[in-house]
Automatic annotation (TrEMBL):
Residues 40-356 form the Beta-lactamase-related domain. Residues 1-18 form the signal peptide. This is Beta-lactamase. InterPro entries: AmpC-like, Beta-lactam-related, Beta-lactam/transpept-like. Pfam families: Beta-lactamase. It comes from Chryseobacterium taiwanense. Keywords: Signal. The keyword Signal applies.
Length: 371
């Protein structure tokens, strides 16, 4: 089976027809995998809100790439495996991978009170004498809020305006102000006893990494992940010149997610080409850092959480995954270690159903491998 990157675009560019809607694609429709991706991606793209989608598959030791739609509404420019998307909360798995390095290197322990690494006094970062630990940050059981300062009132406004309000607020929001606001944060429950998704917790995890290594988060990302894996297009969102335009379900252009304060929680930009390399690395479960990042911190019969990685076992098949969503981008990255296989899907449109449907596409590709 040929790697699709080797197929010249003039040969590979086709137009798929589904329900009378023509969708540009570079899918050569030559193999069973091609046909399956065509079926799933075509169905997804029938929604008039969709803009572009890039899919990367690692299977049987080879990488395959598929692209549909356009990079920008009103243009006829097909995305490629090098097109740059916001990957949103998939970023958290990069932070988890760096935490795995810190754990193996003896820089931190999962049961450390996070205040050990914070400058100043934070008596509020506990609940009935139960402190927040690093482990609590990685599995969203810290009880910390999703954002600082609290943005619950902002999210009550019309959704079209929320993205603009938050982008305007956080563009000048400093780390100094973040830690001033952290003094006012309230822990909702005893850490480790419940689940509450928190970007704040991951921001703190990134700062802990910077403190123990005496290096910036961006430097750590480059040193331990992007340079060794030759992920040449994976960057922090402040350098976003090549980033695609992101849209909401109404076709409205959404502001870019460029604030550095959010970098460890959701600030990475990447491509399907790079994320297939990242998946290949995370399929090496004998690697000590990979193994550590996949070791469950929260355990249940079917669903577990490692260092930010979600781990789900169904019908004896383990799936390691994470999704991502900003106001203009949706994404999913899923791996199936027993099959040495992974799927990454990136889109430059976001709505209430997009992440779930991207997971359905990834699941369908997995199910085909069982045949």
């Amino acid at each position: 089976m040929k790697n699709l990157l080797l197929l010249p675009l003039c040969f590979a560019l086709f137009t798929c027809h589904a329900q009378n809607k023509k969708i540009p694609t570079d899918n050569p429709l030559a193999t069973e995998l091609d046909q399956l991706v065509q079926k799933e991606a075509s169905a997804y793209m029938q929604d008039p809100a969709r803009v572009g989608i890039s899919i990367g598959v690692f299977k049987d030791g080879k990488s395959y790439f598929y692209n549909y739609g356009t990079t920008e509404l009103g243009k006829s420019e097909l995305p490629t495996s090098k097109s740059v998307y916001e990957i949103a909360s998939i970023t958290k798995t990069f932070t988890g991978t760096l935490l795995a390095h810190a754990l193996v290197d003896g820089k931190i322990k999962l049961d450390d009170d996070i205040r050990k690494y914070l400058t100043g006094n934070y008596p509020n970062l506990e609940f009935e004498k139960h402190p927040i630990t690093i482990a609590n940050l990685t599995n969203h059981s810290s009880g910390l809020p999703q954002f600082l300062p609290d943005q619950s009132e902002t999210f009550k406004k019309p959704m079209d305006s929320v993205a603009l309000i938050l982008a305007d607020f956080y563009k000048n929001y400093s780390k100094k102000k973040f830690y001033e606001d952290l003094h006012q944060a309230k822990v909702a429950f005893a850490p480790g006893t419940d689940y509450k998704y928190s970007n704040v917790g991951t921001q703190i995890a990134g700062d802990i990494l910077e403190k123990v290594y005496h290096k910036s988060y961006e430097s750590l990302l480059s040193e331990y992940i992007t340079q060794p894996l030759k992920m040449n297009h994976t960057i922090i969102g402040t350098n976003s010149a090549k980033l695609l335009t992101g849209y909401n379900e109404k076709g409205k252009v959404m502001p870019r997610n460029i604030t550095t304060i959010m970098a460890p929680a959701g600030g990475i930009l990447s491509t399907t080409e790079d994320l297939v390399k990242y998946m290949q690395y995370h399929l090496r479960e004998n690697d000590q850092y990979v193994k550590t990042s996949h070791t469950p911190v929260v355990k249940s019969e079917e669903d577990q959480i490692g260092l930010y990685w979600r781990i789900h076992t169904y019908d004896e098949t383990k799936t390691i995954f994470h999704t991502g969503g900003t106001f203009g981008f949706s994404s999913v990255l899923q791996m199936y270690p027993s099959k040495n296989m992974g799927v990454v899907i990136l889109t430059n449109e976001s709505d209430g159903e997009s992440q779930g449907k991207l997971q359905d596409i990834a699941d369908s590709i997995l199910n085909s491998s069982k045949k």
